[in-house]
């Protein structure tokens, strides 16, 4: 399963578990019949520790079942956040362990989706990222061999027809618009009909590269200024 800028975050606690859908550092708090999933554990009552551990495992087992409803419909990668004990117990029960990107330790139940996105996104980015100096050397070599295109329009077109892809993109680069299905042409937001879905074209290109079994490397802002903030290496 390819790593993507579109992913799930599952926030665990003994009080309740919450599910978010992430797009880079932007999170959507999923709220319906399955989440948030409130706990049946009485954390204040005088309960034997072994009983409480059994209750916690059962609560997290049910949480995993609730998560599977979403994963089975849309199998995205997963980040789990929570206190260390909760992370350990839930990871041992997780059905789709191959979907797990990583764990973030801490209590985040009271953290806003905006702040949680900023906490988790660096983990996603670091997993996908390469070393800036090495990446720039690779770009320079590809440019000498005429194996690189740059700029959102050229990159968007080449991502559809080239192979052996490595995409380099500045981490905060976004272009509002869409990709028309009939000709795969990029359309900027000021040219898009108001009835069309406005998206982030950069994220769409990233997803396309990943679908083509390519790699994505996020770069520091300003490091790709010579390449109009986005570049694509391809094989001949």
Written description of the protein model:
The chain is of the alpha+beta class and about 240 residues long. The strands form 3 sheets. Strands 1, 2, 3, 4, 5 and 6 form a 6-stranded mixed sheet that branches. Strand 5, helix 2 and strand 6 form a beta-alpha-beta unit. The radius of gyration is 21 Å and the shape is elongated. The relative contact order is 0.15. The model has no long low-confidence stretch (mean pLDDT about 85).
Question: Given the structure, what is the number of helices?
Answer: 6
The count of β-strands is: 13
Q: What fraction strand? A: 25-35%
Return Rg in Å: 21 Å
- Describe the largest sheet: 6 strands, mixed
Q: Which class of secondary structure composition applies to the elements?
A: alpha+beta
Average of pLDDT: 86
Shape: elongated
**Roughly how many Å apart are the termini?**
26 Å
User: Any low-confidence stretches, pLDDT <50, length ≥5?
Assistant: none
SSE ordering: EEEEHEHEHHEHEEEEHEE
Portion in helices: 25-40%
Question: Which helices and strands appear, and what pairs or packs with what?
Answer:
Elements: E1 6-11, E2 16-23, E3 26-30, E4 37-38, H1 49-73, E5 77-82, H2 84-93, E6 100-105, H3 113-128, H4 132-144, E7 148-150, H5 152-161, E8 163-170, E9 176-179, E10 186-188, E11 199-200, H6 201-211, E12 215-219, E13 230-235
Parallel strand pairs: 1-5, 5-6, 8-12
Antiparallel strand pairs: 1-2, 2-3, 2-4, 7-13, 8-13, 9-10, 9-11
Helix pairs in contact: 1-2, 5-6
């Amino acid at each position: 399963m390819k790593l993507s800028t579109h992913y799930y975050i599952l926030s665990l606690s003994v009080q309740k578990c919450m599910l978010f859908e992430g797009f880079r550092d932007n999170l959507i708090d999923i709220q319906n019949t399955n989440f948030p999933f409130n706990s049946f554990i009485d954390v204040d009552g005088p309960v034997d520790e072994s009983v409480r551990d059994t209750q916690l495992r059962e609560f997290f087992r049910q949480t995993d079942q609730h998560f599977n409803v979403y994963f089975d419909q849309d199998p995205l990668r997963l980040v789990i956040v929570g206190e260390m004990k909760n992370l350990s117990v839930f990871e041992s029960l997780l059905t789709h362990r191959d979907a797990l990107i990583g764990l973030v330790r801490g209590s985040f139940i009271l953290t806003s989706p905006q702040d949680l996105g900023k906490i988790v996104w660096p983990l996603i980015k670091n997993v996908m990222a390469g070393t800036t100096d090495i990446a720039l050397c690779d770009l320079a070599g590809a440019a000498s061999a005429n194996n690189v295109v740059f700029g959102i329009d050229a990159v968007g077109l080449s991502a559809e027809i080239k192979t052996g892809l490595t995409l380099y993109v500045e981490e905060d680069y976004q272009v509002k618009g869409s990709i028309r299905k009939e000709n795969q042409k990029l359309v900027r937001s000021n040219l898009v009909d108001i009835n069309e879905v406005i998206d982030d074209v950069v994220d769409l290109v990233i997803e396309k590269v990943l679908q083509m079994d390519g790699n994505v490397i996020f770069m520091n802002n300003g490091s790709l200024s010579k390449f109009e903030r986005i570049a694509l290496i391809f094989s001949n």
